[in-house]
Amino acid sequence: QGGWRLRRMARRLGYEQTRLPRLARDFDLLVCIADMFPGLHRGVGVVFVNTLRIYDLRYYGDLRLRTLDVMARIGFRRADRILFPTAAAVDEVVKRTALPRHRLRVVPYGVSLDSFSGARPLETDTRYLLLPAALERHKNIETAIRAIAATRDSKLQLWIVGGDSTDPEHARELVRLAHRIGVADRVRFLGGVPHAEMASYFKGALALVFPSFIETFGFPLLEAMAAGTPIVASDIPVFREVAGEAAVYFPASDPEALAREVERVAQGGADVSARVEHGRERAQVFSWRRSVDELCLCFADVLGARGDEG
Protein backbone atom coordinates (compact mmCIF):
# COMPACT_ATOMS: atom_id res chain seq x y z
CA GLN A 1 0.00 0.00 0.00
CA GLY A 2 2.87 2.40 0.79
CA GLY A 3 4.25 2.03 -2.75
CA TRP A 4 0.85 2.73 -4.25
CA ARG A 5 0.46 5.88 -2.15
CA LEU A 6 3.91 7.10 -3.23
CA ARG A 7 3.06 6.54 -6.89
CA ARG A 8 -0.21 8.39 -6.50
CA MET A 9 1.59 11.28 -4.80
CA ALA A 10 4.18 11.38 -7.60
CA ARG A 11 1.42 11.61 -10.23
CA ARG A 12 -0.31 14.35 -8.29
CA LEU A 13 2.85 16.40 -7.87
CA GLY A 14 3.81 15.88 -11.49
CA TYR A 15 0.47 17.29 -12.59
CA GLU A 16 0.47 20.18 -10.10
CA GLN A 17 4.06 21.25 -10.68
CA THR A 18 4.27 20.93 -14.49
CA ARG A 19 0.93 20.68 -16.27
CA LEU A 20 -1.12 22.92 -13.99
CA PRO A 21 1.05 26.04 -14.50
CA ARG A 22 0.63 25.67 -18.28
CA LEU A 23 -3.14 25.29 -18.00
CA ALA A 24 -3.35 28.30 -15.66
CA ARG A 25 -1.84 30.68 -18.21
CA ASP A 26 -5.27 31.26 -19.72
CA PHE A 27 -6.82 32.36 -16.40
CA ASP A 28 -6.54 35.45 -14.23
CA LEU A 29 -6.30 33.53 -10.94
CA LEU A 30 -5.13 30.06 -9.92
CA VAL A 31 -6.79 28.66 -6.78
CA CYS A 32 -5.26 25.53 -5.23
CA ILE A 33 -7.44 24.02 -2.53
CA ALA A 34 -5.20 21.34 -0.99
CA ASP A 35 -1.90 22.75 0.33
CA MET A 36 0.15 22.38 -2.88
CA PHE A 37 0.89 25.35 -5.17
CA PRO A 38 3.08 25.00 -8.30
CA GLY A 39 6.49 26.51 -7.78
CA LEU A 40 6.79 27.32 -11.49
CA HIS A 41 3.56 29.35 -11.71
CA ARG A 42 4.15 33.00 -12.64
CA GLY A 43 0.56 34.26 -12.52
CA VAL A 44 -1.68 35.29 -9.64
CA GLY A 45 -2.60 32.50 -7.25
CA VAL A 46 -3.75 31.49 -3.79
CA VAL A 47 -3.44 28.22 -1.89
CA PHE A 48 -5.52 26.78 0.95
CA VAL A 49 -3.89 25.04 3.93
CA ASN A 50 -6.20 22.19 4.89
CA THR A 51 -4.14 19.82 7.01
CA LEU A 52 -1.39 20.09 9.60
CA ARG A 53 -0.15 16.54 9.03
CA ILE A 54 2.13 17.78 6.25
CA TYR A 55 3.91 20.26 8.52
CA ASP A 56 3.64 18.53 11.90
CA LEU A 57 5.34 15.17 11.40
CA ARG A 58 5.01 13.87 14.96
CA TYR A 59 2.26 11.43 14.04
CA TYR A 60 3.20 10.52 10.49
CA GLY A 61 6.66 11.19 9.13
CA ASP A 62 6.96 8.89 6.15
CA LEU A 63 8.62 9.74 2.84
CA ARG A 64 5.32 10.80 1.29
CA LEU A 65 4.55 13.43 3.92
CA ARG A 66 8.15 14.66 4.07
CA THR A 67 8.03 15.18 0.32
CA LEU A 68 4.73 17.01 0.53
CA ASP A 69 6.18 19.20 3.29
CA VAL A 70 9.05 20.26 1.02
CA MET A 71 6.78 20.86 -1.97
CA ALA A 72 4.29 22.85 0.10
CA ARG A 73 7.05 25.17 1.29
CA ILE A 74 8.21 25.71 -2.30
CA GLY A 75 4.66 26.58 -3.34
CA PHE A 76 4.17 28.94 -0.41
CA ARG A 77 7.02 31.09 -1.69
CA ARG A 78 5.21 31.54 -5.01
CA ALA A 79 1.56 31.97 -3.91
CA ASP A 80 0.22 35.51 -3.52
CA ARG A 81 -1.94 34.51 -0.55
CA ILE A 82 -1.98 31.49 1.73
CA LEU A 83 -5.41 30.86 3.22
CA PHE A 84 -6.17 29.20 6.55
CA PRO A 85 -9.53 28.34 8.16
CA THR A 86 -8.40 29.54 11.63
CA ALA A 87 -5.86 31.87 13.20
CA ALA A 88 -4.69 28.95 15.37
CA ALA A 89 -3.75 27.04 12.23
CA VAL A 90 -1.77 30.07 11.04
CA ASP A 91 0.20 30.05 14.30
CA GLU A 92 0.96 26.32 14.05
CA VAL A 93 2.21 26.48 10.47
CA VAL A 94 4.17 29.70 10.96
CA LYS A 95 6.07 28.07 13.84
CA ARG A 96 7.27 25.39 11.43
CA THR A 97 7.67 27.26 8.14
CA ALA A 98 8.42 30.92 9.00
CA LEU A 99 5.86 32.19 6.49
CA PRO A 100 5.51 35.96 5.97
CA ARG A 101 2.32 36.94 7.77
CA HIS A 102 1.43 39.70 5.30
CA ARG A 103 0.55 37.01 2.74
CA LEU A 104 -1.57 34.94 5.13
CA ARG A 105 -5.34 35.25 5.44
CA VAL A 106 -7.93 33.52 7.63
CA VAL A 107 -11.10 32.48 5.82
CA PRO A 108 -13.28 30.34 8.14
CA TYR A 109 -15.35 27.48 6.84
CA GLY A 110 -19.13 27.53 7.04
CA VAL A 111 -21.95 25.17 7.89
CA SER A 112 -25.35 24.71 6.26
CA LEU A 113 -27.90 25.23 9.02
CA ASP A 114 -30.66 24.00 6.71
CA SER A 115 -29.05 20.56 6.68
CA PHE A 116 -29.78 20.24 10.40
CA SER A 117 -33.04 22.15 10.84
CA GLY A 118 -35.22 19.37 9.46
CA ALA A 119 -33.13 16.40 10.57
CA ARG A 120 -34.55 13.89 13.01
CA PRO A 121 -32.47 12.04 15.62
CA LEU A 122 -31.30 8.57 14.73
CA GLU A 123 -33.88 5.99 15.79
CA THR A 124 -32.13 4.08 18.55
CA ASP A 125 -32.50 3.44 22.27
CA THR A 126 -28.72 3.40 22.70
CA ARG A 127 -27.02 6.24 24.53
CA TYR A 128 -23.97 7.03 22.45
CA LEU A 129 -21.15 9.49 22.05
CA LEU A 130 -20.33 10.43 18.48
CA LEU A 131 -16.74 10.66 17.23
CA PRO A 132 -16.57 11.45 13.50
CA ALA A 133 -12.94 11.01 12.48
CA ALA A 134 -10.75 8.93 10.22
CA LEU A 135 -8.87 6.26 12.16
CA GLU A 136 -5.57 8.15 12.21
CA ARG A 137 -3.09 8.69 15.01
CA HIS A 138 -3.46 12.45 15.40
CA LYS A 139 -7.22 12.03 15.89
CA ASN A 140 -6.46 10.61 19.36
CA ILE A 141 -9.25 8.05 19.23
CA GLU A 142 -7.39 5.89 21.76
CA THR A 143 -8.14 8.44 24.49
CA ALA A 144 -11.86 8.31 23.71
CA ILE A 145 -11.86 4.50 23.88
CA ARG A 146 -10.09 4.58 27.24
CA ALA A 147 -12.55 7.21 28.45
CA ILE A 148 -15.48 4.91 27.71
CA ALA A 149 -13.88 2.33 29.99
CA ALA A 150 -13.58 4.98 32.71
CA THR A 151 -17.23 6.08 32.64
CA ARG A 152 -19.63 4.71 35.25
CA ASP A 153 -22.47 4.22 32.75
CA SER A 154 -21.80 0.71 31.48
CA LYS A 155 -24.39 1.11 28.72
CA LEU A 156 -22.93 4.25 27.20
CA GLN A 157 -21.36 3.56 23.81
CA LEU A 158 -18.81 5.29 21.58
CA TRP A 159 -19.72 5.40 17.89
CA ILE A 160 -16.76 6.16 15.64
CA VAL A 161 -17.58 7.29 12.11
CA GLY A 162 -14.60 7.27 9.80
CA GLY A 163 -12.56 5.17 7.40
CA ASP A 164 -9.33 3.28 7.98
CA SER A 165 -7.71 3.58 4.54
CA THR A 166 -4.93 5.96 5.60
CA ASP A 167 -3.57 3.83 8.45
CA PRO A 168 -5.09 0.32 8.54
CA GLU A 169 -2.58 -0.86 11.14
CA HIS A 170 -3.59 1.90 13.56
CA ALA A 171 -7.23 1.01 12.96
CA ARG A 172 -6.44 -2.58 13.98
CA GLU A 173 -4.61 -1.28 17.06
CA LEU A 174 -7.74 0.62 18.11
CA VAL A 175 -9.89 -2.49 17.73
CA ARG A 176 -7.40 -4.50 19.76
CA LEU A 177 -7.35 -1.81 22.45
CA ALA A 178 -11.14 -1.93 22.81
CA HIS A 179 -10.96 -5.71 23.29
CA ARG A 180 -8.00 -5.54 25.66
CA ILE A 181 -9.62 -3.09 28.09
CA GLY A 182 -13.01 -4.78 27.93
CA VAL A 183 -15.13 -2.27 26.00
CA ALA A 184 -15.35 -3.96 22.60
CA ASP A 185 -19.12 -4.26 23.03
CA ARG A 186 -19.38 -0.52 23.74
CA VAL A 187 -17.19 0.82 20.91
CA ARG A 188 -18.69 0.67 17.43
CA PHE A 189 -16.52 1.28 14.38
CA LEU A 190 -19.09 2.36 11.79
CA GLY A 191 -16.76 3.15 8.90
CA GLY A 192 -17.88 5.79 6.45
CA VAL A 193 -21.41 7.16 6.76
CA PRO A 194 -22.97 9.23 3.94
CA HIS A 195 -22.78 12.90 4.79
CA ALA A 196 -26.51 13.31 4.22
CA GLU A 197 -27.14 10.96 7.15
CA MET A 198 -24.73 12.57 9.59
CA ALA A 199 -27.21 15.17 10.83
CA SER A 200 -29.31 12.37 12.34
CA TYR A 201 -26.24 10.90 14.04
CA PHE A 202 -25.44 14.30 15.56
CA LYS A 203 -29.04 14.87 16.63
CA GLY A 204 -29.24 11.51 18.40
CA ALA A 205 -25.89 11.69 20.19
CA LEU A 206 -25.51 12.38 23.88
CA ALA A 207 -22.50 14.47 22.90
CA LEU A 208 -19.87 14.98 20.25
CA VAL A 209 -16.49 13.80 21.50
CA PHE A 210 -13.63 15.30 19.51
CA PRO A 211 -10.25 14.49 21.06
CA SER A 212 -7.80 15.42 18.26
CA PHE A 213 -4.23 16.45 18.99
CA ILE A 214 -4.01 18.67 15.90
CA GLU A 215 -6.50 20.16 13.43
CA THR A 216 -6.69 23.18 11.16
CA PHE A 217 -10.38 23.70 11.97
CA GLY A 218 -12.51 20.85 13.33
CA PHE A 219 -15.59 20.88 11.12
CA PRO A 220 -17.58 18.44 13.33
CA LEU A 221 -17.64 21.15 15.99
CA LEU A 222 -19.66 23.35 13.65
CA GLU A 223 -21.98 20.49 12.78
CA ALA A 224 -22.57 19.69 16.44
CA MET A 225 -23.36 23.33 17.19
CA ALA A 226 -25.80 23.47 14.29
CA ALA A 227 -27.45 20.24 15.47
CA GLY A 228 -27.77 21.35 19.09
CA THR A 229 -25.43 18.59 20.27
CA PRO A 230 -23.26 19.12 23.37
CA ILE A 231 -19.52 19.15 22.66
CA VAL A 232 -16.63 17.68 24.64
CA ALA A 233 -13.38 18.55 22.87
CA SER A 234 -9.66 18.39 23.52
CA ASP A 235 -8.25 21.63 24.82
CA ILE A 236 -6.30 22.90 21.83
CA PRO A 237 -6.33 26.51 20.55
CA VAL A 238 -8.08 25.76 17.27
CA PHE A 239 -11.07 24.19 19.02
CA ARG A 240 -11.44 27.10 21.40
CA GLU A 241 -11.33 29.44 18.41
CA VAL A 242 -14.12 27.55 16.63
CA ALA A 243 -16.38 26.45 19.48
CA GLY A 244 -15.70 29.05 22.16
CA GLU A 245 -18.02 28.63 25.15
CA ALA A 246 -20.20 26.12 23.30
CA ALA A 247 -17.86 23.27 24.27
CA VAL A 248 -16.34 21.84 27.41
CA TYR A 249 -12.66 20.96 27.13
CA PHE A 250 -10.30 18.35 28.53
CA PRO A 251 -6.52 17.76 28.36
CA ALA A 252 -6.04 15.79 25.15
CA SER A 253 -4.06 12.92 26.69
CA ASP A 254 -6.25 12.43 29.78
CA PRO A 255 -9.01 9.82 29.30
CA GLU A 256 -10.16 10.15 32.92
CA ALA A 257 -10.72 13.87 32.44
CA LEU A 258 -12.67 13.15 29.27
CA ALA A 259 -14.79 10.58 31.14
CA ARG A 260 -15.57 13.14 33.87
CA GLU A 261 -16.66 15.77 31.33
CA VAL A 262 -18.82 13.23 29.50
CA GLU A 263 -20.54 12.30 32.75
CA ARG A 264 -21.21 15.98 33.54
CA VAL A 265 -22.74 16.46 30.10
CA ALA A 266 -24.84 13.31 30.56
CA GLN A 267 -26.37 14.79 33.70
CA GLY A 268 -27.71 17.71 31.67
CA GLY A 269 -28.71 20.82 33.52
CA ALA A 270 -28.62 24.55 32.95
CA ASP A 271 -24.93 24.69 32.06
CA VAL A 272 -25.26 22.11 29.30
CA SER A 273 -28.39 23.80 27.92
CA ALA A 274 -26.67 27.18 27.93
CA ARG A 275 -23.69 25.81 26.01
CA VAL A 276 -25.95 24.16 23.44
CA GLU A 277 -27.85 27.40 22.91
CA HIS A 278 -24.61 29.33 22.64
CA GLY A 279 -23.48 26.81 20.03
CA ARG A 280 -26.61 27.30 17.95
CA GLU A 281 -26.05 31.05 17.96
CA ARG A 282 -22.35 30.66 17.21
CA ALA A 283 -23.02 28.34 14.28
CA GLN A 284 -24.95 31.12 12.56
CA VAL A 285 -21.77 33.21 12.48
CA PHE A 286 -20.03 30.48 10.48
CA SER A 287 -22.18 30.78 7.38
CA TRP A 288 -21.05 29.77 3.93
CA ARG A 289 -22.15 33.21 2.71
CA ARG A 290 -19.65 34.84 5.05
CA SER A 291 -16.97 32.38 3.98
CA VAL A 292 -17.56 32.99 0.27
CA ASP A 293 -17.72 36.77 0.75
CA GLU A 294 -14.36 36.79 2.56
CA LEU A 295 -12.89 34.53 -0.09
CA CYS A 296 -14.03 36.84 -2.87
CA LEU A 297 -12.52 39.82 -1.06
CA CYS A 298 -9.24 37.94 -0.90
CA PHE A 299 -9.39 37.16 -4.63
CA ALA A 300 -10.14 40.79 -5.44
CA ASP A 301 -7.27 41.88 -3.21
CA VAL A 302 -4.62 39.76 -4.92
CA LEU A 303 -5.88 40.53 -8.41
CA GLY A 304 -5.91 44.24 -7.63
CA ALA A 305 -2.43 44.12 -6.13
CA ARG A 306 -0.98 42.38 -9.19
CA GLY A 307 -2.85 44.82 -11.43
CA ASP A 308 -1.33 47.76 -9.56
CA GLU A 309 2.13 46.25 -10.01
CA GLY A 310 1.51 45.98 -13.73
Structure overview:
By secondary structure, the protein is an alpha/beta fold. The protein has 12 helices and 10 strands. The protein has helices at residues 2-23, 63-78, 87-97, 114-117, 141-150, 168-180, 195-204, 219-227, 237-243, 255-266, 270-285, 288-309; strands spanning 30-32, 45-48, 81-84, 104-106, 128-132, 157-161, 187-191, 207-210, 231-234, 247-250. The mean pLDDT is 94.
Protein topology:
Layout: H1 2-23, E1 30-32, E2 45-48, H2 63-78, E3 81-84, H3 87-97, E4 104-106, H4 114-117, E5 128-132, H5 141-150, E6 157-161, H6 168-180, E7 187-191, H7 195-204, E8 207-210, H8 219-227, E9 231-234, H9 237-243, E10 247-250, H10 255-266, H11 270-285, H12 288-309
Parallel strand pairs: 1-2, 2-3, 3-4, 5-6, 5-8, 6-7, 8-9, 9-10
Q: Radius of gyration from the CA trace?
A: 21 Å
Given as residue ranges, the uncertain stretches (5+ residues, pLDDT < 50) are none
Query: What is the tally of helical segments?
Result: 12
The residue fraction in helices comes out at 40-55%
Return the structural class.
Answer: alpha/beta
Q: Give the distance, in angstroms, between the N- and C-terminal Cα atoms.
A: 48 Å
State which percent range the strand residues make up: 5-15%
Task: Please tell me what the overall shape is.
Answer: globular
Average pLDDT rating: 94
Sheet with the most strands: spatial strand order:
7-6-5-8-9-10
The secondary-structure element order is HEEHEHEHEHEHEHEHEHEHHH
Mind summarizing the main beta sheet?
6 strands, parallel
Number of strands: 10
